[in-house]
Structure formats: structure tokens, C-alpha cells
Design a protein that fits this description.
With 336 residues, the protein is mainly alpha-helical. It is built from 11 helices and 2 strands. A hairpin with a 4-residue loop joins strand 1 and strand 2. It is globular. It starts with a helix and ends in a 5-residue tail after the last helix.
């Protein structure tokens, strides 16, 4: 292994650890807090977490094995099953992010009608579509033997070893990425940009009220006035930063891999093998950052994590004090 391969191997290990811990933490918060379970976005987050966890334990370690050994991990049948899972889980993850963006769009643009437009039944219908969409593409690829070990990515993924079906594979690949990555990206852009537009409109209204109040309060201290103006600026930047994070992480993690898969369809264009692994690592890194982007940095999840930690610390302190009292009781000499 050269230096680049060692660095990539370490990167995959780090992604596996972070992804496993963060997604398990999201799952614990979901099971611990009944309020999170009652909310419709919690179902989408649960589905996304489920996909990320399965991808972490099934595909990432095998990619690490393929990278280190430079050989296919397991037999052809085993690799086809893993490739089916990789196609299904990646598609399901993208569509889950699109579903979360639709949920936010309805909540912000139609706040008074949100509970009638997005119920648990509606969320279950959306999740049913994401599963059917993901299973259909994965099944077609598996039935046509278009999943297997791909040396460029050191992974069991979409691959076409037969030259006779090259045209059909090219058409399938273009359709697959158009109706997964491109469709999800368009949905994210349309919904989040509408959310940003509404957020900026509300910020302007709040800014107008704030400025009118500052004008009326002529005796207000300059430091208070300055803090109000700084809060206005932070309020405007907060919405833009959140929307940029949602769309930016999606593009940064998935776009290089999708573009590489499209470029790969042209045999005349050479692709650096290290770049193939890097693009695959970027897609895996999305599973590691999704828990922070969509869950753990939200106030409700932070509070749940704090409650869990406090409960564990309280229980451990009670156990420690109980053991202390027991040891003190045993050390007291008994009268004969």
C-alpha cells in the first residue's frame, strides 16, 4: 500500500467510527424521547438513520477490506448482495433527505395547515414511495447482474463486467442517477429556497418592528441598540447558513461520486484510481455528518442527550454512594 492508500484507509476507519456512534446516538434519542417519536420529521430521521447504520456496518467495512487487500471481499454472490444493499441504501438516503426538505417547506410555508397536510399517515406514504423507488432500481440492477465488485471504488456496487450489455447499462446508469441524485437535488433546492424566501420575509418584518422600536426609544443606551442590530444580522445569517448546510453537504458528498460514475461511462476518459476511492469516501461521509446536520445539533436532541447523560451520571453516583455505605457498614466492628 502506498501513502495515499494508507491515508484513505484511515479515513474510512474514521468515517465508520463517527457514523456508527452518531447514528446510534440519534436512534437512542428517538427511543428515549416520546416527543421526538410523535413528530412527523422523526419518522424521516429514523429512516435516514436506519439507512446510514446499515450502510456503515455492511458496505463501509467491505470497502476497507477491498482497499487494503486490493481484491474482492467474498464471493460473487456475496458481493452482489452487498451491491444491492449499497444501491438501495444510497437511494433511500437521498430520497429521505428530499422528504425532510418537503416536510420543512410545508411547515414554514403553510404553518397553519401543516398538521393537516403532513400527518403520520402521509409520512408513511412518502416513506413507502422511497422504499419502492429504491427497491425497484436495486432489483433491476441485481436481476441484470449489474452489481458486483468495482476495482475503481474498491466496493461492491454498480458494475457491468459484460461488454455485450454496455448500452443498456449506460442508459440504466443515467436514469438511475437522474431519478435519485438529480431528483433529490432539485427537490432540496426548490423547497429550501422557498423556505429561505419565507424566512427572509419574516426577518424583514421583525427588522422593521425592531427599528421602529429603536426610534421610539430615544433614551436607549447605545450598547443595547448595537446588540439589537447585531441580533438582526445574526437572524438573517442563521437561515442562510442552515439552508446552505443542507444543500451544500448533499452536493459535496454525492456530486463527486455521481459525476465520476457518469464520466466512467466514457472509456476514453481516464480516471485516477485514488480519486475513485476519494469520491466513494465522500458518499460515506454523508452518513457520518447526517446525524449532526438533521438531528444532533437541534435543541430537542441536545436536550435529550443532556437528559440521558445526567440520568446515567445520577445512577452511577447513586450506585457509588450505595457501595460506599455498604463498605462502611462492613468495616464497623461488631460487639461480641
Amino acid at each position: 500500500m502506498d501513502t495515499a492508500e494508507v491515508i484513505l484507509s484511515v479515513l474510512v476507519v474514521v468515517i465508520i467510527i463517527v457514523s456508527l456512534l452518531s447514528n446510534v446516538l440519534v436512534l437512542i434519542c428517538f427511543l428515549y424521547n416520546p416527543e421526538i417519536r410523535k413528530q412527523v420529521p422523526g419518522l424521516f430521521n429514523l429512516n435516514l438513520t436506519f439507512c446510514n447504520l446499515l450502510l456503515t456496518v455492511s458496505n463501509m467495512p467491505l470497502t476497507l477490506v477491498g482497499l487494503v487487500s486490493k481484491a474482492q471481499p467474498g464471493g460473487d454472490g456475496f458481493c452482489q448482495i452487498v451491491g444491492f444493499l449499497e444501491t438501495f441504501l444510497s437511494t433511500n438516503s437521498m430520497l429521505s433527505m428530499a422528504a425532510l426538505s418537503i416536510d420543512r417547506w410545508i411547515a414554514v410555508v403553510f404553518p397553519l395547515r401543516y398538521h393537516s397536510k403532513m400527518r403520520h399517515r402521509d409520512a408513511a406514504f412518502v416513506l413507502g414511495y422511497t422504499w419502492a423507488h429504491s427497491v425497484s432500481f436495486s432489483t433491476v440492477a441485481a436481476c441484470l447482474s449489474w452489481v458486483g465488485y468495482h476495482r475503481l471504488y474498491a466496493s461492491c456496487t454498480l458494475a457491468n463486467p459484460r461488454a455485450s450489455s454496455r448500452t443498456q447499462f449506460v442508459i440504466f446508469t443515467v436514469f438511475f442517477h437522474s431519478f435519485t441524485f438529480l431528483l433529490s437535488f432539485i427537490v432540496l433546492c426548490v423547497t429550501y429556497l422557498k423556505v429561505l424566501k419565507v424566512a427572509r420575509f419574516h426577518c424583514k418584518r421583525i427588522d422593521v418592528i425592531t427599528m421602529q422600536t429603536l426610534v421610539l426609544l430615544v433614551d436607549i443606551h447605545p450598547s443595547v441598540r448595537q446588540r439589537c442590530l447585531e441580533e438582526q444580522k445574526r437572524r438573517r445569517q442563521r437561515a442562510t447558513r442552515k439552508i446552505s448546510t443542507f444543500i451544500g453537504t448533499f452536493m459535496l458528498c454525492f456530486a463527486p461520486y455521481v459525476i465520476t460514475r457518469i464520466v466512467e461511462l466514457f472509456p476514453a476518459v481516464p480516471i485516477n484510481p485514488h480519486w475513485g476511492i476519494v469520491s466513494k469516501c465522500l458518499t460515506y461521509s454523508k452518513a457520518a455528518c447526517d446525524p449532526f446536520v438533521y438531528s444532533l445539533l437541534r435543541h430537542q436532541y441536545k436536550k435529550t442527550c443532556t437528559d440521558i447523560i445526567n440520568r446515567l451520571l445520577k445512577r452511577s453516583s447513586l450506585n457509588a454512594s450505595g457501595r460506599r455505605r455498604e463498605s462502611q457498614g462492613n468495616s464497623i466492628p461488631t460487639a461480641e
